[in-house]
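Q: Could you fold this chain for me?
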Amino acid sequence: IEAYDMTTVDVQPTFPGGMSALYSYINNSRRYPASAYQNGIQGRVLCSFVVNSDGTLSHISVIKGIDPSLDSEAIRIIEEMPRWQAGSIDNKPVPIYCILPIVFRL
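A: Sure. Below is the predicted structure, expressed as structure tokens.
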């Protein structure tokens, strides 16, 4: 997919309600996988995705994972996110490539 880098657009895509709402959403929907919890595995899963011109998310993937169970939980959180406010160039919505860390802390 052709997608713009977040730093090259006029208006960056935003989660509904902004960054604090995004972190609140992540914290409220994160379910710590039992195996990772029992084994004391924690850290940051770095994910990438594209916010499409209609605000839907696609091309979700893990750039830097920690553990398969945590990686798949991070993907699930992003897959279930509500539609974002699309970013734009010259007031025209465009697909934009985003990177988001999902933190798992015991």
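A (continued): The first strand starts at residue 4 and ends at 5.
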